[in-house]
Amino acid sequence: WAENRRIRRVKKAYRQKALSCHPDKNPDNPRAAELFHQLSQALEVLTDAAARAAYDKVRKAKKQAAERTQKLDERRKKVKLDLEARERQAQAHGSEEEEESRSTRTLEQEIERLREEGSRQLQEQQRLIQEQIRQEREQRLRGKPENPEGKATPKLKLKWRCKKEVESDGGYSRDVLLQLFQKYGEVLNLVLSSKKAGTAVVEFATVKAAELAVQNEVGLVNNPLKISWLEGQPQGAVGFSHPGLSQGSVRSERDYESLVMMRMRQAAERQQLIAQMQQEDKAAQPT
């Protein structure tokens, strides 16, 4: 279980880092492609326990050998180096070289096996990144006609119940809020108030994304969000959102039932995500 959790954290860190250094997002950086390739290779090694163990074994052996050599005084070091040189000349295929060669071959074989077995997983991760970049581009293109006169980007104010003495911040951390609102469109910025607990401001790239968030997002079941417009509210838009559902906005009973089921599924997924993040935070804290 701990290994699966570690791999999930590695993949999550890989996706976050890969988005920032992807060549499509850094067209002016000539090293972006090389850095992205190195990041992919690191993911291949870190997600395979056998390859990582072999790699660590070689590194540990080299480190121990270097430490032993460094502790020797100059005279003993010279004697040691002379003896090793004579042994290499007399025994070109000595046991030490064979052991090191076997370790190197084992590491190369494990890395090659990892490339073959993990290629599909890596391609899937890269496909998801490409899809996310494409969606962000489309959202930016859709957002341009909505803001032709250079008006301020749409911003929403978020409020929820939160007690100052409770460290959980009402169940809403910055990561949880990003998970809730990024599904409506590109989030340019999200700031939690340091002075007033239970308040935050989220800035969207497009007015459409902000409208969808105001109309549909209710937050956590046990602590709903109150969402109101701060800037960029279009004419005729709803001023704030109420936790719960409105039957007046649903055209038929079937649509209403579908919407209720969708909201229930979203709430369950959010609760599961928050519980998982809290467990990971507790596990990461030093004992």
TrEMBL record:
Residue ranges occupied by any RRM domain in the UniProt entry: 173-232
Subcellular location as annotated: Cytoplasm; Nucleus
SMART domains, per database record: DnaJ
Record's keyword annotation contains Cytoplasm: yes
GO molecular function, one term: RNA binding
Domain J: 1-59
Location of the region described as Disordered in the Swiss-Prot/TrEMBL record: 59-108
Organism: Equus asinus
Record-given protein name: DnaJ homolog subfamily C member 17
Main location, first listed in the record: cytoplasm
GO cellular component labels: cytoplasm; spliceosomal complex
